[in-house]
Amino acid sequence: MVGMSVLRSAAAFAARLSPLKSGNNAANLLTRTIPRTDKVAVRWGHGKKLFVIKPSDYYDRRFLHLLRYYILLTGIPVAIIVTSINIFIGEAELVETPEGYEPEYWEYYKHPITRWIARNICDSPVKDYEKMMAAIQTEKEKADWRLMELDVRRQMRQKGDGPWFQVSTLNKELIDNSPKATPDN
Amino acid sequence: MPSDFDKGAYPEPPRQTPAVDKQTALPNPALILSKLFYYSVDLPVTTFRDAIDSIRSKNKAVYYHQKFRRVPDLTDCQEGDYLCYYEAEMQWRRDYKVDQEIVKVIQERLRACQQREGASYMENCANEIKQFNEVAKDFQSRYGDLGAYGSARKCLMKQKERMMAAQAQSA
């Protein structure tokens, strides 16, 4: 009787197990061992995968990527060019000026890039000097002419014998000096 | 690259290291470290530099030292001759740069002397110290306190003040 209820409850339990699961066939249903949870081998692998909620770093990473890209776009060619110039062309050496030789104005610089810039882009220092002297000469002449003009104005206004500061009056020959009939003519 | 100091002007004293007299069988750590440094740092760097110099030596450029003609000073200029003023001003600026470099050379000598002598530099470098003090005092009295817009004219006025002060003191 008691065995009947135990068998019934066991049958009900067996009916609840799904037949599709792999360990649930008739051979090992009643004979399988009960797993002891305190003696199972636990391995800490890569850890549990977590979905970390943090603010978006898309914009920061995009900014840094673009920064590196645009800096290196011209930075790397410039670095390669300057390195190859320093290796293959190299800086100049200081020597005494040979007798009777007038060096060109770019031959007074040491680094090849400076020499190139001085030769092709900038004017020679002598030319710059002369340009400045020409500007000073022009301004000096302007200042002298202005001072002379002031002096001339003063003289002509004072003496009155020059072409400036002449106030034109009416023609004296238009005056009728003949005697008039009434005093208010 | 900064050049090495003039070895003829400052000759190294004769070496007084005694001959090696090893009395133990243990290896010398200083020797080991120096060999290590030589093979790991000195030799690669020297071979690299020699390689680059051999590439460079095919097209060697030279550069010269520019010498400027002397032009009349500010005191030799007529009044109102602005061209003469400009040339004198440029010459004064070049002389100012030259004087700055002179002071730097004297400073460098003093620094080298101090480095060489070590702890007893106050006695052994007395010449260099005296020279540097004189040069610095002269530079200060000629070019000091002219300010950022210093010009030949201001320097001349400063000289005039100096001469007036000297005359007032001697009188």
Characterization of this structure:
- The complex is a heterodimer of chains A (185) and B (171).
- Chain A is an all-alpha fold and 185 residues long.
- Helix content of chain A is 49%, strand content 1%.
- Chain A is elongated.
- The termini of chain A are far apart.
- The model of chain A has no long low-confidence stretch (mean pLDDT 87).
- Chain B is mostly helical and 171 residues long.
- The interface between A and B is medium-sized, with 25 and 18 residues.
- Strand 1 of chain A pairs parallel with strand 1 of chain B.
Helix coverage percent of chain B: 55-70%
Q: Helical element count of chain B?
A: 5
Structural class of chain B: mainly alpha
> What is the helix tally of chain A?
4
- Low-pLDDT ranges of chain A: none
Distance between the termini of chain A: 169 Å
Rg of chain B, alpha carbons: 26 Å
Key words describing this protein structure:
heterodimer, A: 185 residues, mainly alpha, B: 171 residues, 5 helices, elongated
Short structural description:
The complex is a heterodimer of chains A (185) and B (171). By secondary structure, chain A is an all-alpha fold.
Chart the SSEs and their pairings.
The complex is a heterodimer of chains A (185) and B (171).
Chain A: H1 2-16, H2 58-89, E1 93-94, H3 112-120, H4 125-159
Chain B: H1 29-56, E1 62-63, H2 82-117, H3 121-124, H4 126-143, H5 152-170
Helix pairs in contact in B: 2-4
